[in-house]
Amino acid sequence: MPSTGSTSGSTPGASTESSAGAPAATATPPENPFSWRFTTPLFLGSALNPVNSSLIATALVPIAHGLGVSIGQTAALVTALYLASAIAQPTAGKAAEVFGPRRVFLTGIGLVVVGGLVGGFAQNLLTLLVSRVLIGLGTSCAYPTAMLLIRRRAHDAGLERPPGGVLGGLQIAGIATASLGLPLGGVLVGALGWRAVFFVNVLVALVALVATLLWVSADGPLDRTRSARDIAAVLDVVGIAGFAAAMIALLLFLFGLPTAHWYLLAVSVAVWIGLVLWELRARSPFLDFRLLAGNRALTSTYLRYGLVLLCVYVVLYGVTQWVQAVRGLSETEAGLLLLPMTLVSGLVISPISRRNLVRGPVIAAALACLVGSAGVLLFSASAWIGWVVVVTLVFGIVMGTAAAGNQTALYSQAPAELLGTASGLLRTFGYIGSIAASAITGVVFHTSVSDHGMHLIAWIMVGVSIALVLMTIADRTLRTGSPADRPSR
Fold first, then answer.
1. What is residue 446's three-state secondary structure?
2. pLDDT tens-digit profile of 145-167?
3. What confidence tens digit (pLDDT) does each residue in 89-119 have?
4. Measured on CA atoms in the order 440, 444, 448, 452, is the torsion positive or negative?
5. Rounded Cα gap, residues 13 and 119, in angstroms
6. DSSP output for 238-297
7. Cis peptide before 258, with omega less than 30 degrees from 0?
8. DSSP 8-state secondary structure symbol assigned to residue 160
9. Rounded distance, CA 212 to CA 216, Å?
């Protein structure tokens, strides 16, 4: 992330008081600064990324048949979105800090429209891959820019605490909607064919575009006196490129497991070392390693979120495979079995976010994660199928409490002028956790799906959960109602 330095006036484009990120006007704020008009486009945009991550699942087989490729090749469409999103989230946040969040949000919507059209009219797999990358880049602009827009609105309204209800709605849009992709994709593919899962992005994005233009106030004027070199330095283009290269190598290594391509891991490590050396000298670092080292609270939030999502996605990936292979459930039945997990998370997020709670929810998430992981040890071919529902409900609580608590923590811990990059990095850690979960299930279930394999995965989850509990309880930086809760002015 960019260096903190002082507040306004330190680095061009690095402060909330900069021309691009500052409010268009600072007149008397509206009585309800977070009306449905303001939040609707932000929630719509933030829902597009999680929905698209699961929307494609039901279309993979029809795409393979329609384009004359193997089903295995279509798996690259899933990988493409994950790679693009993991890299684009903090990058979009950084761009929003420099050019203004509304501009980047609208740019992202435009990329989604283009990506949807490219995919809808595609005649080969390569074009579909380009489409998925464009959709991944575009949808990744929504969450970090929404966080900046909400922070700016709260600043204008003179709020001294995070707008919990709005942050909760943003998390629900970004998590609870993930489960909608499967049934929505099934309906679209069944009624209109696989191209509909791409064209639907165009419709939703156009609604978000119009709503944003009408109801979200414009950013301040751009500083057009900057040279291209100055903009590149402020954005830290070299740092962004290094981060992208390191992440691509790491994620490709994880995606390739159980076949270990060690050269990819070596490349990733080498690039990370070079990136650290560069960022320590950069004028406006994309990843401020000094800040991450000095701001233990923020770093701990990232680690907690990544570990929680690792366990949650092990349940989503591993349990789904196990109930189909061992218990004989169909894909539809397996999806319905896990649906309550996402619904519970949505119900949990709202009351926690409204009260701006942090320490209690993240501790509850860690403890529930340990309980749920231990519960997976009881899965067997002869066990009561309802036990699976009980365990997934526990992980619904885990997902809801962790999402709400860690987002409020991030809002309070990250410097206001760096909230865009910080928010994007939170999502990146979540992607790393989910990809690591996919790698774990892929390694354990490489030859066959069995009770023994499920129990091995459960022990891994128990180990991760114990580490999560210890680091969360020992974290003395967790606070609520502290001065960090107040937006920077």
1. coil
2. 999 999 889 888 888 788 888 98
3. 999 999 998 899 999 999 999 999 999 999 9
4. negative
5. 35
6. HHHHHHHHHHHHHHHHHHHTTS--HHHHHHHHHHHHHHHHHHTT-SS-SS-HHHHHH-HH
7. yes
8. S
9. 5
